Prior knowledge:
By secondary structure, this protein is α/β, with parallel strands linked by helices. The protein has helices spanning 12-26, 36-45, 64-73, 89-97, 112-122; strands spanning 4-8, 29-33, 50-54, 82-85, 101-104. It has a single domain (4-122), classed as Response regulator (Rossmann fold). The chain has a five-stranded parallel β-sheet, with helices on both faces. Strand 1, helix 1 and strand 2 form a beta-alpha-beta unit. The chain is globular and about 30 Å long. The mean pLDDT is 97.
Amino acid sequence: xxxxxxDIGQCSFDHGAIRRLLDREFSADVARADGLDDAxxxxxSKPFDLVLINRKLDADDSDxxxxxxxxxxxxxxxxxxxMLVTNYPEHQAAAIAAGAVxxxxxxxxxxPATREKLARFLG
Length: 123
């Protein structure tokens, strides 16, 4: 059974790039959510192996870290690994301090380091 990833808050271009990488490298099924409400509906309806959250959600420019907190506050979802997608080290550090696993930036999408981080959950 393929691994499942929920990608939250990416613009269409970035979602496509992430989806292509995850399909090519891991044959993962990638679902998309624009914000917290639709993400929670999806997370509660099916199991996911990994959640990716954009630092700033494309739909409304809200903070991805708030989505991270909301998912972790739900006891049924707290164990799902979450990565913040950001090129900024200080935001990556804040996400890790909040309970996320180390993520990656879009600028590093095609690097071996990003594939290694993803393989931990999808390989």
